[in-house]
Amino acid sequence: MNKIGVIGAGKWGSALAFALSEKNEVYITSRTPRDIKNFVSLEEILELKYIVIAIPAQEISLWLKEHFVNKGQKILVAAKGIEASSGLFLNNIYKDYVKDKDIAYLSGPSFATEVKKSLPTALVINSKNEELSDKFASFFPSFIKTYTSTDVIGAEIAGAYKNVIAIAAGVCEGLELGKNAAAALISRGLVEMQRFGCAYGAKEESFVGLSGAGDLFLTASSTMSRNFRVGLGLAKGKTQTEILQELGEVAEGIGTAYALQKIAKDRDLYLPIAREVYEILEGKDPLSSLKSFLSN
Ligand SMILES: NC(=O)C1=CN([C@@H]2O[C@H](COP(=O)(O)OP(=O)(O)OC[C@H]3O[C@@H](n4cnc5c(N)ncnc54)[C@H](OP(=O)(O)O)[C@@H]3O)[C@@H](O)[C@H]2O)C=CC1
Ligand SMILES: O=C(CO)COP(=O)(O)O
């Protein structure tokens, strides 16, 4: 049995620890200590060969700087987001700490709540090192079908961008604009994130597969999604602070919308839905925002 360490005992980290324990001996740690099975110290986890990191994108840069010690571990990154303050992708952040050959990124449709109930899904392990992707893929339980890909940037952008589109879809639902509008928004969102990804050398097919369309359709159509619920709150006129207080969990689409706004400005890119989400987060009226996107 392989020993796997999970860092971050939030919703996704604990769901992954549960799923991976079907075939492996799994240990978990977190910033806030918990009275749960196999909870150990960070120092003990860092001694293990295989580690899953489920710390949100907005926090990871500082966490790596303050806590990570490279001992040649193989890392699977479970977060989905782009750092707001810098506009850096996760692979840019991690590359200062972990070699490309030692790191993989997890993507695809996966609400933690369903994974914790052993409900089936299909996920993608993305790494430049195909041997490592295969290895991580082999750790997953029978109820999760795994695929592998070398398109790290495509998977990363798809996983992060879909959270922003999910916020827009939540706004659309909250404003009761109808299913036609939602479908129009989601499909234009898919095109927007694919175009953005391709500008960074991502493969088009990553956006129509599990990492892109798969995760987008899931997140942008369900109140199980925290990002979708952020959109519902914005449509009701709630502030970011009120929404996050009610949510009590992370919604990566918010930071990612700010990151995309920064990138769009720096690189002079046209990202219409991401821009509207950013503007709504900054106080623009949601209805006029969606109308400006959906009307001629
Ligand atoms: N939930 C889901 O269904 C899915 C989530 N994801 C992604 O996984 C990532 C984590 O999400 P999720 O688990 O749901 O979020 P949660 O808010 O449930 O958990 C976040 C985790 O990160 C830890 N954490 C937060 N800030 C810091 C910090 N500054 N230093 C150290 N640890 C920190 C928390 O530690 P502690 O609680 O111990 O303080 C907690 O374990 C996100 O990027 C999300 O998009 C991806 C797929 C599915
Ligand atoms: O990424 C997810 C499912 O694949 C989780 O989405 P939310 O963070 O919006 O809940």
From TrEMBL:
Transmembrane segments: none annotated. One of its GO terms (biological process) is glycerophospholipid metabolic process. InterPro entries: 6-PGluconate_DH-like_C_sf, 6PGD_dom2, G3P_DH_NAD-dep, G3P_DH_NAD-dep_C, G3P_DH_NAD-dep_N, NAD(P)-bd_dom_sf. One of its GO terms (molecular function) is glycerol-3-phosphate dehydrogenase (NAD+) activity. Residues 151-288 form the Glycerol-3-phosphate dehydrogenase NAD-dependent C-terminal domain. Keywords: Cytoplasm, Lipid biosynthesis, Lipid metabolism, NAD, NADP, Nucleotide-binding, Oxidoreductase, Phospholipid biosynthesis, Phospholipid metabolism. Residues 33-132 form the Glycerol-3-phosphate dehydrogenase NAD-dependent N-terminal domain. This is Glycerol-3-phosphate dehydrogenase [NAD(P)+]. It comes from Sulfurimonas hongkongensis. The lineage of its organism: Bacteria, Pseudomonadati, Campylobacterota, Epsilonproteobacteria, Campylobacterales. The gene is gpsA.
